[in-house]
Amino acid sequence: MARERGRTKPHSWPSQSPKTEKRRAFLGPAEAPLVLVVDFDDRRDVYADVFAAAGLRVATAVDGEHALWKVDAFHPSVVVMSLALPGMNGCEATRRLKATPRTRHIHVIAVEPESPDALLQASSCGADAVVGRACSPEALLAVVMGLLPPAR
Q1: pLDDT digits (tens, 9 = 90+) for 12-51
Q2: Helix count and strand count (H, E) for the chain
Q3: How confident is the model at residue 11 (pLDDT cuts 50, 70, 90)?
Q4: Residues 6 or more apart from 60 whose CB is under 8 A from it?
Q5: Which of 52, 90, 128, 129 could form a disulfide with 81, with the two C-beta atoms 3.0–4.6 Å apart?
Q6: Structural domains of the chain sorted by starting position, each given as residue range(s) with its CATH number in brackets
Q7: Which of 95-103's residues contact partners 24+ apart within 8 Å by CB, and which partners?
Q8: Which region among 21-35, 111-125, 129-143 has the lowest average model confidence (pLDDT)?
């Protein structure tokens, strides 16, 4: 459930079935690796625009549960996951991805405030890489590119 102006309402996703959702356009070229960006604020859109400009396909999600649904529907190569999410947090979503045989190979980059506790939490969740919230979109892109398989 999401909160909107003090009242609880159901999430608006998934608005369509995964089959219908797959036909929707992603940012970026069709043959490029897919990166899923999970965050609940404007940073999500900034990251998506930078990744698409670099030639990647990009999908977005707003919380941990939505991220798991998108991973199941689209099979991204990398997930950029804020750990501070409403509802199911990013740490729990990362644990679930890493505990499931068909998704444990997906690289997860945790985005967190730069503190020793946050870095420890991100590592304990199973994230493949951790970046601070203050990380520039271009620096995050470099981390994403480092985790992607070499282009053929």
Answers
A1: 444 444 443 443 445 555 566 888 998 887 888 999 999 9
A2: 6, 7
A3: very low
A4: 36, 37, 38, 39, 44, 45, 48
A5: 90
A6: 27-135 (3.40.50.2300)
A7: 95/125, 95/126, 96/68, 97/68, 97/71, 97/126, 98/125, 98/126, 103/71, 103/72
A8: 21-35
Two tokens, residue 62: 């707003």
Cα 73 to Cα 90: distance, rounded to the nearest angstrom: 18
Helix/strand/coil for 107: strand
Report which residue type is found at 63.
D
Radius of gyration of the chain (CA): 15
The neighbour count for residue 53, using CB atoms within 10 Å, is 13
Tell me which residue of 98, 108, 152 sits closest to 129, measured CA to CA: 108
Q: Read off the tokens for 78.
A: 């990398």
Task: Collect all residues with Cβ–Cβ distance below 8 Å to 94 and sequence separation of at least 6.
Answer: 79, 81, 83, 108, 110, 125, 126, 127
